[in-house]
Amino acid sequence: MHPLLLSKIKEELESIEDISQGLLKVCELIHSEMEAYDWVGFYFMHHPSRKLHLGPYVGAPTDHTLIDFGKGICGQVAESGNSFLVEDVNAQSNYIACSIDVKSEIVVPLYQNGELIAQIDIDSHLINRFQAEDEQFLVAVNELLAQRYSELSRYIDTLI
Ligand code: SME
């Protein structure tokens, strides 16, 4: 489950106090080190308005900076609280297309102190790119972030 990369992420985060910079560093590391992780970003939940707000990301700019709960893969994860692995995005009816190059996607929820606060979203230009191993890796990445930044659950306030 990529223990070396997880160690590297943990080590890098130790010296980064700023949450935005820490989230961006995670995006940069996994975008560059994981094959065909072509877009990597975080969405944070705003529960009162039931909207997801885009946080730091690496990859092509996206128009989807604000997503309603229930809409698209990300919005469905906001409601279910469970990871969503999409083999072929073109086979999904409830999907928000960012680019015609994207073929598969994974969204993994981020919990802090039992509360669903965010999600990591990865798009790939390869079909069926994401497996259970990727999910386990991304769960571990999200856990590292939740442990490193005790204020992460309040990060949404900087995005709204
Ligand atoms: N495809 C996502 C939207 C976000 S972009 O991938 C950056 C979805 O269906 O929720």
Describe this structure in words.
This protein has 160 residues and is an alpha+beta fold. It has one domain (3-158): GAF domain (Beta-Lactamase, 2-Layer Sandwich). The chain contains four helices and six strands. It has helices spanning 3-14, 19-33, 72-80, 132-148, and strands spanning 39-46, 51-58, 66-68, 84-86, 104-112, 115-124. The longest helix has 17 residues, at 132-148. The model has no long low-confidence stretch (mean pLDDT 97). The structure holds methionine sulfoxide (SME). Methionine sulfoxide binds next to helix 3 and strand 6.
What is the topology?
Layout: H1 3-14, H2 19-33, E1 39-46, E2 51-58, E3 66-68, H3 72-80, E4 84-86, E5 104-112, E6 115-124, H4 132-148
Antiparallel strand pairs: 1-2, 1-6, 2-3, 4-5, 5-6
